[in-house]
Amino acid sequence: MTLEIEHGCARAKEQLVPLACKVVSITSQTSDVKAYRIQTADGQKPFDCEPGQTAMFSVIPYGECMFCVSSQGEDYIEFTVKKVGYVTERIHALNVGDSIGIRGPYGNWFPTEGLKGKDVLFVGGGIGLAPLRSLLTYMLDNRDDYGRIDLVYSGSTRDDLLFLDEIQNDWPKYPNTFVNVSIYQASDDWDGAVGFTAPFLESLDFSPEGRIAVLCGGPSLFRTCLESLEKIGFPPEDIITTLEMKMKCGIGKCGRCNIGSLYICLDGPVFTMAELADLPWSAH
Amino acid sequence: MLLAKDRLNELLDHLSTEARVYVPARIETQTRFALYSDTVKPNFKLVNTELPPKDILFPQTQNMYRYGFDAEGVPFIDPIHDADDVVIFGARSCDVRSIECMDDVFLTKGYVDEFYEPRRSRLLLVAMACNTVAESCFCDSMSLDPNSAPAADIQMSEGDQAFEVTALNEKGEAALAAWSSYLTEGSIEHAAVSCELKVEMTGIKEKLDHMFEHPIWESVSKKCLNCGTCTFVCPTCHCFDISQENRMKIGERFRSWDSCMFSCYTEMAGHHNPRAEKMPRVRQRFLHKLCFFEDRYGKSLCVGCGRCVADCPVALDITVLIDQIGAAELTEGAVHDA
Asked: What is the CATH number of domain A19-106?
């Protein structure tokens, strides 16, 4: 089957100058990950976007960072942010009601049309759930349009799993929707699977027939799970991922997310592995 | 039409009353495009100014917006749009082409850059044909002509007593109509020049398409210091950073020139860096100039101005590299589609 993924299709409302917004809720996910719901200063949704699109989160006056919009509602957009550097530390210091800036949405999106009627296997680890969540929640909101949904998700420990309550208690309630969660290090508070993502994925025996895999995770998870998906029999055109590069402008001008003739912020971040094979870029 | 040389400053004085006029000039120890004034006069003996005119459209540092909290604690974000009418008077063909390249970047692919476009649309671009070439000039190997710059609004060429001025588009025609009191009928004979430094570009792009993994990058990058001089003096290098400066509760967010030669350019939070080593950075710069940009925008990002050739402290010469690429063998295992 051939999936059509659009590239270079984003038309951000705010290109370089952010819109004044505020934090309306914060939920702590792990010791270093929090999810933020954002509205404009006057209580509106900052923008509508497609699953997989990104936006620049600006912490006045410290700096700005690009994140995937991890989900959205009627009147908010949500970001899921791991504390890993200077700006994300500042984001983690934010309180409900604090003013921030948002510009976007940038980039392309997961092929929500092309996936209709197909089974979808989500594979991710740790913070890699954030972009997967944007597509997964979209599919759950439009459940009848899609086939079987499976999530294979891992974290180092139980405390590194995001949205665990939703994953374990809400998502499996949807028809034909299954979650499989593992942690790398066994602990007393965990009675589920223990093991790295790639062998866990292989043990679950998914058929590539009629199924699209959507993969997102850190470099080692990405590499090993990609190998597993290929071993199981997924052709590169049926494996979708979303790339990360350093980004400053979001509109394909500033240069740093350039790979070959593409700019990941504008032409990506969503690609099939078949498309990436043509780029001067190495997944391994 | 002709502009007598003894009326040049009169014309520039007049233009300066309506626009900011930039002319090639030596400012202290450096040659660049500087604001015309009583003390800064054009020097057309400079074949190629050491710094290109790119900062006029794309300033080295450009404030984009002010932000902060007002007296009532209400947040504000105010864009800064400050374009004036500008004349670049006496750009060489290479620098005119470089503006075409910047137009591709900042004005196409779905996004018109809100800080570049106002400057660009208010620019009158006056090209000057070269009467001589520098040792490091190789524009005519890069599909340019040192004698004419079709993308300019007005083409000038220099004779003994006068400049010939020719409008190349409607904007140029309107400008010449406004300058009519300084102009006389006539033409001059421009002796066409060509570059002494030549490179053979035939097949280079197509070869580079398959040279991403070629060992040539390891050898050419060895002596690079990653100093960024090449990107600083390059008329087409347009990468920028976005940062901010704060004073109490008020600040300005600005963009400023950046360089793919620096390791922090691609370093992400968590220290993951796809181009942490020198070789991938050197490779990125040359492939972007000679291969990637052409794939995206249909023209080379090297205009043959020779500035990086002249200024590189370790003589990493793009013309030598092009020759090496031409001579390189595409061996098995070294081939990867770029």
From this structure: 2.40.30.10
